[in-house]
Design brief:
The complex is a heterotrimer of chains A (121), B (151) and C (134). Chain A is mainly α and 121 residues long. Chain A has one domain. Chain A has seven helices and no strands. In chain A, helix 2 runs parallel beside helix 5. Chain B has 151 residues and is mainly α. Chain B folds into two domains: 103 residues, no CATH class; 29 residues. Chain B has eight helices and no strands. Chain B is extended. Chain C has 134 residues and is of the alpha/beta class. Chain C has a four-stranded mixed sheet with strand order 1-2-3-4, sandwiched between helices. The radius of gyration of chain C is 16 Å and the shape is globular. Classes of the chains: A mainly alpha (121), B mainly alpha (151), C alpha/beta (134). Chains in contact: A-B, A-C, B-C.
């Protein structure tokens, strides 16, 4: 079990290093980098490589933003397998809502609780 | 001066980024966040009826909750300055982007300010995530139906 | 100090790689022959670090833990393991899982050693849990 935590640490760290290289060497903005990583996650799932990657690295593969692309594609493919082409549209958010829903819900809650840090000039 | 010379001057005068140091701090920050995520995942598996496959859902939601608290208290900004990509790439970075946008635009009202601007930083992630999922799934479905590959 | 750390890391890695799988099992009808057959089969598996099994009324529930470094092919290993167990016990309804939580739950059932009716309920609950997708 400890070994799983170490692998999650290493793999998660390496993915973030890739992100950092995209920041510093390729000089991409954070929005560009994150969008690129999500698309990469999506393509990897299309190739059938992301699920085995999750089996290997656990949280090291589900916590980085790439897993969004993976779960969206995974849901779409699962529905398409059952219902044909229309499943590509209907299945996308079936298994993936926790990250996005949580972000929206906690965003609103945070807006209710916390004070803005910006200075009004 | 023309655009090319201007750009060259800017590149020469801009402070050099310490790439190696940034990569190291990104590795540490991202690794620690994912390590904490793995521990939280094990805790959900141990105390609740979540399997390995389904434990990623509550884990991600918990990480976003932690990001909300750290963002609201102003701590996530400091983690971001230290870790760079290490704090932006994990889902906590996404949560931080959404929550900080919500807090900053509170002054403009909840409907127009919070509601209209909450996805200012994180919107491109969702848009291109959905779009690429659509394209990839479409291509794979067509290839399967034509008979080139199997599921 | 550094040398000691390095040596212990190497030992841990090597130790984790060459251990034979540990098997825990429970047979409701106490058929030692079937238990031994399965235990011998699991012990020969190279990529599995531990296994647990419960035999019940021509049903067989097996959970395995794949070795960490082979986890990338966990699905393939599980599928081939399932095929081989099914051919080993053709008249049993076989269910195999490689999920960590399912392993823990099955070990709890093995420790409890419950009676016939409770075993059926527990095993059904286990299989329903492993089918959950969200």
């Amino acid at each position: 079990m400890i070994f799983s935590i170490i692998i999650a640490f290493v793999v998660g760290g390496l993915i973030c290093v890739v992100g950092q290289l995209l920041f510093d060497v390729a000089k991409l903005t954070p929005a560009h980098t994150l969008s690129l990583l999500v698309v990469i996650g999506s393509v990897l799932d299309g190739l059938g490589l992301y699920e085995p990657f999750i089996d290997f690295a656990g949280a090291g593969a589900t916590i980085p933003i790439m897993s969004f692309g993976n779960s969206l594609t995974h849901g779409a493919l699962a529905e398409a397998e059952k219902h044909g082409l229309i499943g590509v549209l209907t299945g996308m958010f079936e298994v993936t809502s926790s990250g996005i829903s949580a972000a929206i819900v906690f965003g609103v809650i945070a807006a209710l609780i916390f004070k803005s840090k910006g200075k009004v000039s | 001066m023309d655009a090319k010379t201007y750009q060259q001057t800017v590149d020469q005068l801009a402070p050099k980024r310490p790439v190696l140091k940034n990569c190291l701090t990104a590795f540490l920050t991202g690794g620690i966040i994912c390590g904490i995520g793995q521990i939280i995942s094990f805790m959900y598996m141990y105390f609740f009826p979540f399997t390995e496959r389904t434990s990623s859902n509550p884990t991600v939601a918990t990480m976003v909750f932690i990001a909300m608290v750290l963002t609201g208290l102003g701590i996530y900004k400091k983690i971001g300055q230290f870790g760079g990509a290490g704090s932006a790439v994990p889902v906590t970075g996404f949560g931080n982007a959404v929550v900080s946008a919500a807090i900053e635009h509170k002054s403009e009202g909840f409907i127009l300010g919070v509601g209209g601007n909450i996805f200012k930083l994180a919107g491109s992630v969702i848009v291109y995530g959905v779009f690429s999922a659509f394209v990839v799934a479409l291509i794979k479905t067509i290839l399967v139906q034509v008979g080139v590959i199997n599921w | 100090m550094k040398k000691l750390w390095f040596i212990s890391c190497v030992l841990l890695l090597v130790g984790g790689c060459s251990e034979r799988p540990q098997v825990t099992s429970y047979h409701v009808e106490d058929n030692q022959q079937e238990l031994e057959k399965l235990e011998e089969f699991i012990a020969d598996q190279e990529k599995i670090s531990e296994g647990s099994a419960v035999f019940f009324d021509h049903e067989l529930v097996v959970t395995i833990q794949v070795k960490p470094l082979s986890k990338f092919s966990k699905e393939k290993i599980t599928k081939s393991f399932e095929k081989e167990v099914k051919s080993l016990f053709p008249d049993h309804k076989v269910f195999v899982s490689s999920d960590l939580k399912i392993s823990w739950e099955l070990k709890k059932i093995i420790e409890e050693q419950p009676e016939k009716d409770k075993v059926k309920k527990d095993l059904d609950k286990l299989q329903a849990l492993s089918k959950e997708a969200t």
